[in-house]
Design a protein that fits this description.
The structure is a homodimer of 352-residue chains.
Chain A lengths: L7 H4 L1 H11 L8 E3 L6 E4 L4 E11 L11 H18 L3 E12 L4 H15 L5 E10 L4 E11 L14 E5 L4 H12 L8 H8 L5 H10 L4 E4 L4 H12 L2 E5 L9 H8 L3 H7 L6 E5 L5 H8 L6 E8 L5 E4 L5 E3 L5 E2 L4 E2 L8
Parallel strand pairs in A: 4-5, 9-12
Antiparallel strand pairs in A: 1-2, 2-3, 3-6, 4-6, 7-10, 7-11, 8-10, 9-11, 12-13, 14-15
Helix pairs in contact in A: 3-4, 3-7, 5-6, 5-9
Chain lengths: 352, 352
C-alpha cells in the first residue's frame, strides 16, 4: 500500500472517529442506546438493564514507558482507565477481555505482574478477565482492554444530557496526573519524595466507579464524563454532544498540593496544568438548578472524595469560556491531552 | 524494567494463557459458563440467552503484510476471524469494538477502506461496530477487534463436549489458506491466475457463521471449533478440553484444487499443508454415533458447503493419530500455525 497522500496523524483522533461514524450505516437498532462517540456504547438488554462496552488501547512509548511504570502498575492502570469509562456512565464493571501485543524479550515475570495488576484492579468491583488474545509485536508492548459493564435503566448517564443552567461539578482535584507526569519527566523514578502523591495520581489513578454509580442512582445529574483528556477537552465533549456552551471559573478549580511548584519548574501555569493536562480520571457531571448543592454533597457522603462546583452550562451561543478571579472572560481552549497524537494539542474549536 | 531472564517467546502462546488462568481467581460466578481457554467466553444473560465474547489482535508484519493484502481486505479479514469464533460457538454476532494502533504515515484513505471492509463483513450478519479506540504506534498497524454475540441456551457448543465414539466432521476444504499463503510468499501479488482461489481463501476467508448456528440448533454436535491453527492443532484443543483422543484418516481429508502443485513448489507435502497450515476458518465438529451421516448432510442442505467425515474421537488412552490409506497409524503432531510466534511450530504434546 502506498503511504503517501493525507496521513492519519495530520487529521487527529476526533476527526478520525467522525469518519467511522460516516462509514458505518446509520444505527437502526432500537437496542443500541448509545453509539460510537461516548465513553462507552450502551446496549439495551431488557427493560431494566443495559450493557456497557468500552475499550482502551495503550501503546508503549506513547502511553507509558517502563522507565516510569512497573508492569504491575501498568496492569492496574490499563484496567483503571477502562473502569473509569464504565464509572462515567454510572455502570458496574462485569467482564474484561485483554489483548496483548508482546515484544520479543518481554520477561515472563513482567507478563505475570501485568495480569496480577489487572486482576487486583478488577477484583474490588467484582469484575473478571474472561478472555483475550496474545500476539507478537516487533519492539513494543500493546495492551488493549475491552471492559463490559451493566447499568440500570433508566439511569445511564451520557455526555449528551447537559442543559443551559446546569452547574458543573468535578470530583477530586485537577491536574495532579499531569503534574505527576511532569515530575517523572524531569526527575525520572528518583523524584523528590514531596511529589509522591502527584506521581501516584499519574501512575495509579483511582477510577471513580462507585461514585459514578451513586451519582447515577441519585438522579442528580444530567450528563457525566470521566476526565481523561483534561477538563477543558472533556467538558467540550459534553458541550458538543449536548449542544450547549459552558463557562468555568479559574478560582474554583480544585488544585492538588504542590502543583504550583511543579508548574513553576516545568514552565507551565497551574491553570494550564489543571485545565489541559489529562488522565486525572476524575468525574465531571452536570446538575440541574432544581437540585440543591447540599444534595450533591450528600451523595458523596462518607466517600472522602471532595466534589467541587467549577462553573455552569450556558446556551450554545454563550460560548466556551474561562472566567478569571476578576470576572474577566476569555475563550477556553477545548484542548487537552490527545492520546492519539501523544501530545497536548492546541486544537481550536471547529478547526478540524 | 529489566528484560532479562525468561522471555515470553521462549514459552509460547498456550502456556502463556495457562499462566493467566493460574493468576486469575477461580471463576465463582455461576453466570460465567465458559471462561478463558475456548474460542469465546460465554456469559449467561437469562434462562434462554447467553452472551459470547471474543477478541483477536492482528499485528502488521506478524499477521499480515500490505504487500499482500489491501486495507479493505484486511478490514474484512480481521472481522471474519472474529465472526468465525462466534460461529464456532453456534452464536449470532451482534456488536463489535475496534481498537487500532496506527503508525505515522498511514493514509487516511487506507483507514477508511479498513473500516469499510469491517462494515461490509459484519453487515450480512446484522452486526455493527459500536465503539473503539485509536492510538499511535511507532511503525506498524495493530488491529484489535472485540466481537460480541448471542446464543440460545441450551445450544452453545464448546471445545469440551467430545466423547469417545463421536465422528469428526469438517466443513469445506483443508489447507487452502496455507497454500494461498505459500503462493503469495513465492510470487507476491502477481501470482499465476490458476492459484486465485487459494489466495482468495487466504486473504478473504468466509467465516461459517450461519452453518455454525445451524449445527448448534440441529443438536447434532457435541463439540465445535473453528480451524484457525490448522486441523491438527485445533482438533488437539478439542481433545485436551474434552479429555479424549482422536484419529483422523489421511485419505479422507478434503483437499482444495491445486494444493498438490503448491505443495510441490513449496517443498511441503499436501498432507502437511492440510493438517498443519492454519487460517482455513472452517468448522470442525464432533457428532455422536446415534446421529446418522444423512442427518449431518441434511443440516448443510442447500448451503453448498461440503461437509466431510475425517475421523473419530477415541478414549484418552487411544492416542492422537493419523491413519494412512493402508491403515498404518502414526502419531499426529498437535502442531499448527502459532499466531503468537508467527511460525508453524513443531510443539510436542505436553512439552510445554
Amino acid at each position: 500500500m502506498k503511504r503517501g497522500r493525507k496521513c492519519v496523524e495530520e487529521i487527529g483522533e476526533f476527526p478520525l472517529i467522525e469518519r467511522i461514524r460516516k462509514i458505518l450505516p446509520a444505527a437502526g437498532d432500537k437496542d443500541l442506546l448509545v453509539d460510537i462517540g461516548d465513553d462507552t456504547a450502551v446496549i439495551k438488554l431488557d427493560d431494566r438493564r443495559a450493557m456497557l462496552l468500552t475499550c482502551d488501547i495503550q501503546v508503549e512509548g506513547s502511553h507509558f514507558r517502563f522507565e516510569h511504570i512497573t508492569p504491575y502498575q501498568l496492569g492496574r492502570r490499563s484496567m483503571a482507565v477502562n473502569l473509569s469509562d464504565i464509572g462515567a456512565m454510572g455502570g458496574k464493571p462485569t467482564w474484561a477481555l485483554v489483548s496483548l501485543g508482546l515484544p520479543a524479550g518481554f520477561p515472563v515475570k513482567g507478563y505475570d505482574r501485568l495480569f496480577e495488576g489487572m486482576r487486583d484492579e478488577l477484583q474490588p468491583h467484582g469484575a473478571r478477565i474472561v478472555g483475550g488474545n496474545l500476539a507478537r509485536t516487533r519492539d513494543f508492548l500493546v495492551v488493549d482492554i475491552t471492559l463490559l459493564g451493566e447499568a440500570d435503566l433508566p439511569g445511564v448517564l451520557t455526555r449528551g444530557g447537559a442543559r443551559a443552567g446546569d452547574r458543573i461539578f468535578v470530583t477530586g482535584t485537577l491536574g495532579a496526573s499531569g503534574a505527576g507526569f511532569q515530575v517523572l519527566s524531569a526527575f525520572g523514578k528518583r523524584f523528590p519524595a514531596r511529589y509522591k502523591e502527584l506521581v501516584k495520581r499519574h501512575l495509579s489513578p483511582t477510577p471513580r466507579v462507585d461514585l459514578g454509580r451513586r451519582i447515577a442512582h441519585a438522579g442528580i445529574a444530567t450528563a457525566m464524563i470521566d476526565l481523561s483528556d483534561g477538563v477543558a477537552g472533556d467538558l467540550y465533549h459534553v458541550c458538543t454532544r449536548s449542544g450547549v456552551g459552558a463557562e468555568i471559573h479559574e478560582d474554583r478549580l480544585p488544585l492538588p498540593e504542590r502543583i504550583g511548584e511543579v508548574a513553576e519548574t516545568s514552565g507551565r501555569s497551574v491553570i494550564d496544568l489543571a485545565l489541559h493536562s489529562g488522565e486525572d480520571y476524575e468525574l465531571l457531571f452536570t446538575v440541574p438548578p432544581r437540585v440543591p448543592a447540599e444534595t450533591v454533597q450528600s451523595v458523596f457522603g462518607e466517600s472522602g472524595v471532595p466534589v467541587t462546583e467549577i462553573g455552569s452550562i450556558v446556551e450554545r451561543g454563550g460560548g466556551y469560556s474561562l472566567v478569571d478571579a476578576r470576572g474577566n472572560r476569555s475563550p477556553l481552549k477545548p484542548a487537552g491531552w490527545d492520546h492519539f497524537r501523544g501530545t497536548e494539542t492546541g486544537r481550536e474549536v471547529g478547526r478540524s
